[in-house]
């Protein structure tokens, strides 16, 4: 598992996301988004301490149902899930520490 580097264009159905039992971070954004590109080193830094957390990077946009089901408004939005439930959310995080704290909520090491 660990950090994913490319955005997936195929959205999994919401029911599939809700059924995930392992700690998972869903990152909504796009490859062309400046905010999304800028946060990648911070995500990588935080994920280094949590290699067993699943990272789903989902390309989002107008009319994309998965992002709308999570009420995503800005990119990147990181949804931290444990046993199919949202535990934390970060929108345009500005430091690896905040990402690390949210990861610790779903993957206490």
SSE layout and pairings?
Blueprint: H1 14-18, E1 24-29, H2 34-47, E2 54-59, H3 65-69, E3 77-82, E4 85-91, H4 96-106
Parallel strand pairs: 1-2
Antiparallel strand pairs: 1-3, 3-4
The biggest beta sheet is recorded as: 4 strands, mixed
CATH fold name, please? Glutaredoxin
The CATH class assignment is Alpha Beta
Anisotropy-based shape:
globular
- Based on CA atoms alone, the radius of gyration comes out at 12 Å
Describe what you observe in this structure.
Helix 2 (34-47) crosses helix 4. The protein has helices at 14-18, 34-47, 65-69, 96-106, and strands at 24-29, 54-59, 77-82, 85-91. The protein is built from four helices and four strands, in the order H-E-H-E-H-E-E-H. The longest helix has 14 residues, at 34-47. The protein has one domain (14-106): Glutaredoxin (3-Layer(aba) Sandwich), CATH 3.40.30. It has a four-stranded mixed β-sheet, covered by helices on one side. The relative contact order is 0.25. The model has no long low-confidence stretch (mean pLDDT 95). With 109 residues, the chain is α+β, with helices and mostly antiparallel strands. Helices cover 32% and strands 23% of the residues.
